[in-house]
Design brief:
CATH architecture of one domain: 3-Layer(aba) Sandwich
CATH class of one domain: Alpha Beta
Number of helices: 23
Structural class: alpha+beta
Distance between the termini: 136 Å
Oligomer: single chain
Number of strands: 23
Strand content: 15-25%
Length: about 700
C-alpha cells in the first residue's frame, strides 16, 4: 500500500512539473511579438523617419552585412528623396519555414511626391534570443531593388502660362534670348584685357566673370555663361528704319564678337516684350530663394524653380506656374531605367488674358516716360482697365536675365524711384476732387447748383476763429455758383461747400464712395483717406481745405477713376477689373443722385468747352469730353515757398456708347513751373488723339 502511494505521488509531481513547464513556455511565447506586429512597427518607424529604430529591429546577419551608417543613409536617401509621408501595409499571410523563421507576405501603399506606389513584398523574420528579428536586404524597400540599384526622382517642370492683352498680344511668355559666355580653351593666353572689355560691355564686374570661370565644373571646352541679353533678330535689321534699340543691340553684339573665346547661344527664357511700358503691371519672375523654398511645405517648387516676385506674375503665380510633374524610377548602376515606379504628369500653367490694350498702354507710357506719374485708362461703363501705367519705369527683362549688382544699385538709388509703383499709391488730389464734393453736396441737398456762395474773391477766411488763415484761389468771376466754380476751379467755393456739408456728413459720404476701405481690385491698392490713420476731420480749417482736395486728403488713381465712373452710370461706381474673363459689376450703387450726376456732367463738359475752363486746351475737334483738372500743393506749411505740385487730369466721354466709352485719370508729380495741371492736359490730349477717342 505504501509503495502505491509513493508511486502515485511521483506521478502527480511529474504531471505538475510538466504542466508548470508548459505553462511558462506558453506564457513566454505569448509575450513574444508576432512578425506581422513587428512589421507594422517597422513601417511606422519609416513614417517617423526613425531609421535608427529600424536598424535596431534587424537580425545579426543583416547587421553584419550593413553597418548602421550605411543602412540609415540608404533608407533615408530613398524614403525622404521620394517624399514618403505615409506608409501603409496590409498583411496577407504569415508562413512558417522549416528553419523556424517566419515569412510575412504583405501589400504596401506608399504616398510619395509622385502619388501612390503600390506593390507586394515579403519580409522574413528569424528568432534570435527568443525574439523575432527582421532579415533585411535592399529588396525590402522595393522587391526589385538590388544592392547597386537606385531610386531616382525626376521633376518635370510645367510650362508657365503666358499673359496676353485684350487683343491677344503677348505681354509675358516664353521667348528666346542670347546667352553670352566664354569657352576657356579658346581664350587668349592672357585673358585679362578680354575680361575687362567683356565686363565693360555687359556692365558686370571683372570679379564676377573671374569667379564664374574658376568654378569647379569648368573645363577647357566648357561654355561658361556670363550674362543673358536680348536676342538680335535678323528681321530687326531688314526694316526700312532701324530703331535706336536695335542699333544698340547690334553695336553690343559686334563689340562682344571681337573678344577671343566668346560665344553667343540661344536660350529659352521668360520674356517681357513691352519691358518698361508694362513693368509695374506685369512684374517679373526670378529664381526661387532658399527662404521661399523653406516655406514651401507642399513641395510645389524645387531649387531650380522660378517664381513670380512682383506684379501680375506674383499675383497670378498659383495659376501661371502650373503643376510640376514627378517621376520615380528604379535605375541600375549605369542610370538605365529598369522600371517606372510612380509618375504624375506635368500640367502646364494657365494663360491669363487681360483687359489691357497694349497699344493704349504704350501710347500713355510714351507721353509720361520722363515724368513721375500714374495713369489709369478705363472703360467706365464696363470697368475694364485698358491701361495702367507708372513712370519712371524699369526693364523687367533685366531681372529674369540676371540683373547685375551695378544695375540694381543704379535702380534702387535713383531719386526718381523707378521701382516705385505709383498707380498703387495715394496722392493729394487737389481740384480733381471738386466734382465729387459737388456731387455729394447736391445729393445730400446741402446746397443747390444755382445757389450763390457770395462774391468771388481770390482769398477768403471763415471768421475770426481762423486767425490769419485764408483759402486762396487763382481767378475771380461773376456768379459764384457750382458750374462757374468748376469751370474756374475755385478753391473758395469748394471750401464753403465742404463747410455747408459739415464734417460728419462729409466723412460719411466719402466713406460711402470707398474712402478708408480696402479696394476690390486684383492688384492691392493703398486705400484713399480724408485723415491720417484712424483720425477724423478735426477742425473747420481742415474741412474747408479738404473740400478742394488739400488738408489730409489722399486718393488712389484707380479709386479716383471708379468714383468718376459714377458720372456715366447714373450715380453708381463701377468695379474696375483687369482680367478679361471678369464680369461687370458695381462697386458702390447710387452714391450720387441722378440729378446731381446730370448737373456735374454738364458742368464738366463746360470745363473743356468754355474758353475760361481750366481744361479748355484739351478740347478735341468733333468729340464731346468732360474733364476736371487738379493742381495739388505738397508743402510743409501754407507759407512754404519751396513746396512742389502734383498735376491731376480726369477726362471722360460722357456721350459715348458702351463700346467706345473711355475714362482717363492721370497724376504727374513736380509740375510746378511746368504749367501745373495744364502740363498733364497737354499730354492727355496727345494720348486721346493717338488713341482715336470717339
Amino acid at each position: 500500500m505504501k509503495k502505491r502511494w509513493i508511486i502515485l505521488i511521483i506521478v502527480l509531481l511529474l504531471i505538475l512539473s510538466g504542466g508548470t513547464f508548459f505553462y511558462f513556455k506558453w506564457h513566454e511565447n505569448k509575450n513574444i511579438k508576432k512578425p506581422d506586429e513587428l512589421l507594422q512597427t517597422y513601417m511606422k518607424h519609416i513614417e517617423k523617419q526613425d531609421y535608427s529604430s529600424m536598424y535596431d529591429m534587424l537580425d545579426q546577419s543583416s547587421k553584419l552585412n550593413y553597418t548602421k551608417e550605411k543602412f540609415i543613409t540608404r533608407n533615408q536617401k530613398i524614403y525622404e528623396g521620394i517624399g514618403a509621408t505615409t506608409v501603409k501595409i496590409r498583411i496577407d499571410s504569415t508562413q512558417d519555414v522549416s528553419d523556424g523563421s517566419k515569412v510575412v507576405a504583405y501589400h504596401t501603399t506608399l504616398t510619395t511626391y509622385a502619388g501612390e506606389m503600390n506593390f507586394d513584398n515579403e519580409a522574413t523574420f528569424v528568432k534570435e534570443d527568443k525574439e523575432y528579428r527582421l532579415e533585411w536586404d535592399d529588396n525590402l524597400i522595393y522587391p526589385k531593388l538590388g544592392k547597386n540599384d537606385k531610386i531616382r526622382i525626376t521633376n518635370v517642370e510645367a510650362k508657365r502660362g503666358s499673359i496676353y492683352d485684350c487683343n491677344g498680344v503677348m505681354l509675358a511668355g516664353e521667348g528666346i534670348a542670347s546667352s553670352v559666355g566664354l569657352v576657356p580653351g579658346n581664350m587668349s593666353k592672357d585673358p585679362s584685357l578680354d575680361i575687362e572689355q567683356l565686363a565693360k560691355l555687359l556692365n558686370v564686374s571683372k570679379e564676377s566673370i573671374e569667379k564664374k570661370l574658376s568654378a569647379s565644373w569648368v573645363k577647357k571646352d566648357s561654355f561658361v555663361p556670363i550674362k543673358t541679353i536680348p536676342k538680335l533678330e535678323g528681321s530687326e535689321l531688314t526694316v526700312d528704319k532701324i530703331s535706336d534699340e536695335t542699333k544698340e543691340k547690334k553695336k553690343l553684339q559686334d563689340g562682344l564678337l571681337t573678344i577671343k573665346g566668346l560665344k553667343i547661344i540661344d536660350v529659352k527664357t521668360r520674356v517681357y516684350p513691352f519691358a518698361e511700358k508694362m513693368a509695374h503691371l506685369i512684374g517679373y519672375v526670378q529664381n526661387i530663394t532658399k527662404e521661399e523654398l523653406d516655406k514651401d511645405k507642399e513641395h510645389i517648387y524645387d531649387s531650380n524653380s522660378q517664381i513670380g516676385k512682383v506684379g501680375l506674375e506674383s499675383l497670378y503665380e498659383d495659376r501661371l506656374r502650373g503643376t510640376r510633374g514627378v517621376e520615380i524610377d528604379l535605375v541600375n548602376s549605369d542610370g538605365t531605367t529598369k522600371e517606372v515606379l510612380a509618375a504624375v504628369l506635368a500640367e502646364d500653367g494657365a494663360d491669363i488674358h487681360l483687359t489691357i490694350d497694349s497699344d493704349i498702354q504704350s501710347k500713355v507710357y510714351a507721353q509720361y516716360k520722363k515724368d513721375k506719374s500714374a495713369t489709369v485708362v478705363m472703360n467706365p461703363k464696363t470697368g475694364a482697365i485698358l491701361a495702367l501705367v507708372s513712370t519712371p519705369s524699369y526693364d523687367d527683362n533685366e531681372f529674369i536675365r540676371g540683373i547685375s549688382s551695378e544695375s540694381w544699385k543704379k535702380l534702387s538709388e535713383d531719386e526718381d524711384k523707378p521701382m516705385y509703383n505709383r498707380f498703387r499709391a495715394t496722392f493729394v488730389p487737389g481740384s480733381s476732387i471738386k466734382p465729387i464734393i459737388g456731387a455729394i453736396g447736391l445729393t445730400t441737398s446741402k446746397f443747390s447748383a444755382t445757389e450763390s456762395f457770395g462774391k468771388s474773391a481770390k482769398s477768403w477766411t471763415k471768421d475770426k476763429s481762423w486767425g490769419g488763415y485764408k483759402v486762396t484761389t487763382l481767378h475771380t468771376y461773376d456768379n459764384m455758383i457750382l458750374k462757374n466754380a468748376l469751370i474756374y476751379s475755385d478753391n473758395i467755393y469748394f471750401a464753403k461747400a465742404a463747410l455747408k456739408i459739415g464734417s460728419s456728413s462729409f466723412m460719411k459720404e466719402l466713406e460711402k464712395i470707398g474712402f478708408k476701405e480696402s479696394y476690390p481690385f486684383d492688384i492691392k491698392l493703398t486705400a484713399s483717406t480724408y485723415a491720417s490713420g484712424d483720425n477724423k476731420i478735426k477742425s473747420s480749417i481742415q474741412l474747408a481745405d479738404s473740400g478742394y482736395g488739400q488738408g489730409q486728403m489722399l486718393v488712389n488713381p484707380v479709386h479716383m477713376a471708379s468714383i468718376y465712373s459714377a458720372f456715366v452710370n447714373e450715380g453708381s461706381m463701377i468695379t474696375p477689373f483687369i482680367e478679361a474673363k471678369s464680369e461687370s459689376s458695381f462697386y458702390k450703387e447710387n452714391v450720387f443722385s441722378k440729378d446731381a450726376v446730370n448737373e456735374i456732367v454738364r458742368d464738366l463738359i463746360q470745363v473743356i468747352e468754355d474758353k475760361h475752363g481750366t481744361a479748355h486746351s484739351g478740347k478735341l475737334k468733333g468729340v464731346t469730353l468732360a474733364a476736371k483738372t487738379g493742381t495739388s500743393e505738397i508743402k510743409a506749411s501754407k507759407g512754404d515757398k519751396n513746396g512742389t505740385e502734383l498735376g491731376w487730369y480726369a477726362v471722360f466721354t460722357p456721350k459715348a456708347d458702351v463700346k467706345d466709352s473711355l475714362l482717363m485719370v492721370s497724376m504727374v508729380e513736380d509740375v510746378k513751373d511746368r504749367g501745373g495741371s495744364a502740363y498733364v492736359v497737354g499730354k492727355a490730349k496727345k494720348i486721346l488723339e493717338k488713341v482715336g477717342v470717339k
